[in-house]
Amino acid sequence: MPFDQLQPMPEDWQRALAVVAHPDDLEYGCAAAVAGWTDAGREITYVLASRGEAGIDTLEPAKCGPLREQEQRASAAVVGVSEVEFLDHRDGVIEYGPALRRDIAAAIRRHRPELVITLNHRDTWGTTVWNTPDHLAVGRATLDAAGDAGNRWIFPELTEQGLAPWDGVRWVAVSGTISPTHAVDARPGLERSVRSLLEHRAYIEALTDEDPEQYCRGFLTANVEANAQRFGGIPAVAFEVFHR
């Protein structure tokens, strides 16, 4: 296989945990892959560091947070995910550090996944488009927490709370990365990924004047088609996969 071609994602796993900063992060990145995985009988849980309460300029956080939580739960259901957790870190000022690592390690211990999914943890989106501090903090903390979860001497209070160490994370897959290594055929789940992103209607309507469905379909289709030339001509969701 040529070095610049994307490899198929590992298939020998049953449970995945997706950890991101905000509602809509997964829908912009990898919901088509999630839809295909749940169709195959795999279990996916979503964990969000915040409720996205600072995400809509025209809506105060006290009203925005519950609305975006509702949209996220509906969005997850479209692609077969029924379990969505919120860690209640403050949107916009999520801090990388032990508190965030501990909360994510606790989620990993609760759900015991073989695959952990997160979003781009690097400074940019590949050009001059700057990434947000929340994405950097949560992405990096998720990579670290995948190891923390298996070490009983890091955050020993989790063991005292009944969360036994889990050293079963085999891969961390980063969506939206500038350096993808693997990919998943997006075709079976693409239509549902469009509907999943469309569930974030309040956010999208505040973001763009374009018709919401046209916006969602155009954005997601362009993303997966851009990966096709590196995946045998197949529209694909791309990940950078770190092995543990």
Automatic annotation (TrEMBL):
Keyword Zinc found: yes
Keyword Lipid metabolism found: no
A GO BP annotation: glycoside metabolic process
InterPro entries named among the record's database cross-references: GlcNAc_PI_deacetylase-related (IPR003737), LmbE-like_dom_sf (IPR024078)
Keyword terms, alphabetized: Zinc
Pfam families recorded: PIG-L
Gene3D superfamilies per record: LmbE-like
GO molecular function: hydrolase activity, acting on carbon-nitrogen (but not peptide) bonds, in linear amides
TM ranges: none
Organism domain of life: Bacteria
Protein name from the UniProt record: GlcNAc-PI de-N-acetylase
